[in-house]
Amino acid sequence: MDAKPLPSSRRELTKTQNRETILEAARLVFAQIGFASATVRDIIRATHLASGTFYNYFKSKEQVYQALRDEEALVLRPRLRQVRAQAVTAEEFIAESFRTFFWFEIEKGGAGNERFRLDSREVMAGFDELRQDILAAMTRGLLPVADAGLLTAALTGLAFELAEEIKRGAEVEKVTSFATALVLGGLGGLPKT
Amino acid sequence: MDAKPLPSSRRELTKTQNRETILEAARLVFAQIGFASATVRDIIRATHLASGTFYNYFKSKEQVYQALRDEEALVLRPRLRQVRAQAVTAEEFIAESFRTFFWFEIEKGGAGNERFRLDSREVMAGFDELRQDILAAMTRGLLPVADAGLLTAALTGLAFELAEEIKRGAEVEKVTSFATALVLGGLGGLPKT
Amino acid sequence: MDAKPLPSSRRELTKTQNRETILEAARLVFAQIGFASATVRDIIRATHLASGTFYNYFKSKEQVYQALRDEEALVLRPRLRQVRAQAVTAEEFIAESFRTFFWFEIEKGGAGNERFRLDSREVMAGFDELRQDILAAMTRGLLPVADAGLLTAALTGLAFELAEEIKRGAEVEKVTSFATALVLGGLGGLPKT
Amino acid sequence: MDAKPLPSSRRELTKTQNRETILEAARLVFAQIGFASATVRDIIRATHLASGTFYNYFKSKEQVYQALRDEEALVLRPRLRQVRAQAVTAEEFIAESFRTFFWFEIEKGGAGNERFRLDSREVMAGFDELRQDILAAMTRGLLPVADAGLLTAALTGLAFELAEEIKRGAEVEKVTSFATALVLGGLGGLPKT
DNA sequence: TATGAATGAGGCTTCATTCAT
DNA sequence: AATGAATGAAGCCTCATTCAT
């Protein structure tokens, strides 16, 4: 069941640790200065490792990015699929999706430079998964039938932009309620503040 | 009527043209590879000009970006303010805002690489203007009273993400209807596709 | 008798003025940042003229430098020759040389960046003239016979280094007395402060 | 005994050698075209190293210069202090100072371009040390009491300008005698050539 | 003659990547 | 594996100089 075997020797351990060190440094650097302006050197400098060591683990900045994405996706996407699958009302479907996403964004650690955030929409990669889940929910009558592609985009846009508000200090629950109310009932149903 | 006098000589003309050439090249380059990874050289290479010429017009990539932003903001923001000010129903307020934004995004042309789009959200420096207009609309009873900050973020997120769908081929009117229906009435009021 | 005819028309006048403008700007710039690091652009920028205009008057920075040197030499060297020729005692020969040089350095205008000062030893170009005058003075019994080359160098070194002290605030007369006493009688004959 | 441990591996050795290579090249370049007009590229071109390598050792031309100065000062200044401290007569004080300085200048090798010489006067950062030693010598009765600042400047000027004569071929001992005689007894006491 | 925009050479520096140790 | 110095391509920018107006 384990995707990766546990490190089985001292050497293995170090190997795993170095990889993690690099990923952690990259996450930090990307968050601070953005993926595009980050350099491999920046990542190495955020590390106690030598420059050559980087290349023992990754071929390029892009590859680190992929790894980071995969790691995040590995955590977030299953969580999202689960809450959506378990939803028995539209309200649950929507609210739990937002709530899960918002908490994850917080958990990821706040810094959150705009550039990386944006790129991080790809992290979600779960765009397609969301559309599929929406379609499934329409099929099973949970959500009214509508253009699934547009709805997916709409929810994504709401989620990312509202997540920014949370990073700026808004409360998760408040934002979740707001987003859910907006999606379920539109302007008319919004909480009165 | 012209704010700036027209070029008054061959020389002035060339100067104006070169500036435009650079801006146009920059727009293209930013759209293709994103602002952050674009280099001044990339921009120069996308023109027929010599490298030094760039610096006769702009001090840096950032400055070109500003010029581009200002140019766009100068066009888009007044349009948005106007449609919002003239709106006499919530439906008009919402629909016209989306429609105006979507048409503008198309007009701008750009392939629209994700990275630039994001940065280009600053183009909307009109974020604040939107919030103010929303507050004003709430005051005059056009929109129901709610958290203006969150609503601003929500509309922004919807607008940018749905604009992507349009760039991918969706029809402006269809997306406008969808977005408007979602905002006004939530999931329940969405067009049946 | 005039080396240069006076400007005879408006155009001539402007021409002369522009030349002077450039020379003046160059003098300033050289004094501030040194000849070697000064650029033609720096000189032009210190002027109200256009870059192209510079080349109507001088081919390069070096040529401006030459012109500046010539101008200075035209003033200083004849003065020095004269005082040395008129000297009837060794004391006069030495003292008047120093005094003349020191006053000239002050007159030139204080700023006096080290780099330009040094280069400006070439301005003196009168190195050879000094040697010849020393030889002549030895011949006519004014100065004791000794190695004229070394004496020339010695006086030059004294003059330039002590001129620095003057620029730092020492009084011309005091420094002149000091230098003269040192050269005529050595340490033993120096003023007691 | 060594302040710095000797290079302990092939690698360390190369590193030390490269540093020396760069310093040597810089010394040469500065001597030939002067510090101010020298470029980092000039220095690199005078080595077999790649451009980037320069920056593994120094951040800028200025830093190389500092290193060069420090290296020289480290050698010259203690020597000068020592001979001045050990002097028991005025003649020794003066003669040994000149002699030491002249030999050092020869030892340094350099073609000795004027510009570099001047800047290199800073090498003598020992200017202050000289003044202090002069004051001390006046106090202990070795030198007659006089204006120490002017005397310092005078000796410095003599030393640098006469060093030029040596570089042009004059003999060290002859120049030393000349300078010493001039300082001790003035024109009257100069050797008859 | 004066102008000032265009040019491209060339200086400075950082970067990704290699490779000997 | 880990190291980190070497490399040279490539980015940034300023410069001297030309030349159309």
Structural class of chain A comes to mainly alpha
Strand content of chain A: under 5%
Q: Give the CATH H-level superfamily of the domain at 62-187 in chain A.
A: Tetracycline Repressor, domain 2
Order of helices and strands of chain A: HHHHHHHHH
Q: Which second-level CATH architecture of the domain at 62-187 in chain A applies? A: Orthogonal Bundle
The biggest beta sheet of chain A reads:
none
Mean pLDDT of chain A: 86
- In CATH, the topology of the domain at 62-187 in chain A is named Tetracycline Repressor, domain 2
Assembly state: homotetramer
End-to-end CA span of chain A: 47 Å
Low-confidence stretches of chain A: 111-120
Considering residues with a beta carbon less than 8 A from a beta carbon on another chain, report the largest interface and each chain's count. A-B, 50 and 48 residues
User: How big is the Rg of chain A?
Assistant: 19 Å
Question: What is the tally of beta strands of chain A?
Answer: 0
Q: What is the overall number of helices of chain A?
A: 9
Helix content of chain A: over 70%
Give the overall form of chain A: elongated
Query: Which class of the domain at 62-187 in chain A in CATH terms?
Result: Mainly Alpha
